[in-house]
Amino acid sequence: MVGLSNNAARAAYGVALRLKSLGMEIIPVHPSAPLVHGSQGFSSLAEVPGAVDVVDVFVNATLAGAVVDQAIERGASAVWLQLDVVDHDAADRAMAAGLDVVMDRCPAIEAGRLAL
Asked: Is 101 helix (H, G, I), strand (E, B) or coil?
């Protein structure tokens, strides 16, 4: 989850906790590389060890394109741009690279809607 920190006032903090409660592995990616919900953080997507499946983009929309490009470089399977994170050009690049794309949606909300 790019943009996840220990700031409990930020939406990413609660969303990460919800996804973790559903059994998903959460890896915080934030310049300060914090430990969040028991998961070690990394300062960049490039530093995350192993395969990267879904990159949850929880940053300002003006920064989303760079994160999507990093996800493409890492060989991620999908990018999920959170609510209000809209970058159509970045989404097009990701789709052209073969990634699945979800944009302007929250996985915690969608999990509830799908009764996961």
From this structure: strand
pLDDT, average across residues 3-25: 94
* Structure confidence at residue 57 as a pLDDT band (50, 70, 90): very high
The encoded tokens of residue 34 equal 């914090």
- On the CB side of 31, CA atoms within 13 Å amount to 1
Rounded CA separation 31/24 (Å): 22
pLDDT at 115: 67
The string of DSSP codes covering 63-87 is: HHHHHHHHHHHHT-SEEEE-TT---
* Cβ atoms 45, 52 nearer than 8 A: yes
Give CA–CA dist 83/105, Å, rounded.
5
